[in-house]
Design a protein that fits this description.
The chain is of the alpha/beta class. It folds into 2 domains: 2-168, Glycogen Phosphorylase B (Rossmann fold, 3-Layer(aba) Sandwich), CATH 3.40.50.2000; 175-329, 3-Layer(aba) Sandwich (Rossmann fold), CATH 3.40.50. The protein has 12 helices and 14 strands. It starts with a strand and ends with a helix. The model has no long low-confidence stretch (mean pLDDT 93).
């Protein structure tokens, strides 16, 4: 089988250096894969004998029309009858256009949780438009929709999408690999003299709700010598730095760049905090649970579905300040 993939992940353009590029090479061992990516730079190369990558070049408008042209050309030349797109918005619209023009089967990958709550459509005009475009013009017209978790599957059923269209394929972690991993970092040694160490691990974006969590810790630190370690990179990184500095929290809240080895941090933290407002899955919470590290999280993503409440997993209502304070103090 041959597939055309419309991806937004520019890491694939690193020609085998990135983890996602290596994942594409693995996919190519099962089927021939043609990947087209909107990007300011125009490139074309082979990741492997069976994985071919091309990017559009140009600005956003040019990218849109070039993706259409590239997709039609590849489908015709390579006799492709299956299209998969990374999301139901920009890439999804291109996929629907190509489906209409060529008759190919269209699969939409849904990694984010856009439809189980109103969060996404209330987070700006762009997201509001994308919310309805994805719902009416892409998802309802797709032949298949691949989701990563049960929460997303149920949200699609609530939209009136046929259950026969939906395929659930959870993000996999290997418990044996996680459990056997030898840590190179011990947070107690690296950051001594704290009563407990709490960890946030992931992208630093508004939806991750880190600024709200810092306000929670500002209250907690009035009477407790805890450490909050934030490991990640993203668009609100500067805001986080300023909030820490402006509130004189430098001694107890520390920010570090993203790591490719999260197990180092997960294994020696007292608790992983997961305050996201919306989440497609929540792999890091699953990994922490496998390791045996306690988890406090909002009711998003895997919460109450793939990951159940237990003596080590506390699932709380979104933005319940008092519940979060008590849960952290009870660790």
């Amino acid at each position: 089988m041959q597939k055309l993939m419309i991806s937004l992940d520019n890491n694939i353009l690193n020609e085998g250096v990135s983890i996602v590029a290596m994942r594409m090479i693995e996919y190519g061992k099962k089927e021939r894969l043609f990947i087209i990516i909107p990007n300011k730079e125009k490139k074309s190369f082979n990741l492997s004998e069976s994985v071919h990558v091309a990017s559009t070049g140009g600005n956003k408008i040019a990218q849109y029309f070039r993706l259409k042209k590239m997709g039609k050309k590849i489908i015709k030349k390579e006799n492709i009858n299956f299209i998969t797109t990374q999301d139901p918005f920009f890439a999804g619209l291109i996929g629907r256009y190509l489906k209409n023009k060529t008759g190919a089967t269209l699969e939409i990958q849904l990694h984010g949780d856009f439809y189980s709550s109103d969060y996404y459509k209330k987070s700006g005009l762009k997201n509001l438009i994308q919310y309805y475009v994805g719902k009416w013009f892409v998802l309802k017209k797709a032949d298949k929709i691949r989701v990563v978790g049960e929460r997303i599957r149920l949200s699609l059923l609530n939209l009136g999408i046929s259950e026969n269209k939906i395929i659930t394929k959870a993000i996999q972690n290997d418990p044996e690999v996680i459990e056997s991993y030898t840590s190179n970092i011990n947070l107690d040694d690296k950051y001594p003299n704290y009563e407990k160490t709490f960890l946030v691990l992931g992208r630093l974006e508004p939806v991750k709700n880190i600024l709200w969590l810092i306000e929670i810790f500002k209250e907690i630190l009035k009477k407790n010598n805890f450490l909050l370690l934030i490991v990640g990179m993203g668009s609100v990184e500067k805001d986080i730095e300023e909030q820490i500095k402006n509130n004189n929290l430098d001694n107890n809240i520390k920010l570090q760049n993203w790591t490719e080895n999260p197990y180092d941090y997960l294994r020696s933290a007292d608790c992983l905090l997961f305050p996201s407002l919306s989440e497609g899955y929540g792999l890091v919470a699953m990994e922490a649970n496998v390791i045996g590290t306690k988890v406090i999280m909002n009711d998003v993503g895997v919460a109450n579905y793939e990951l159940k409440p237990s003596d080590k997993v506390k699932i709380l209502p979104i933005n319940d300040k008092e519940a979060w304070i008590q849960a952290i103090l009870n660790i």
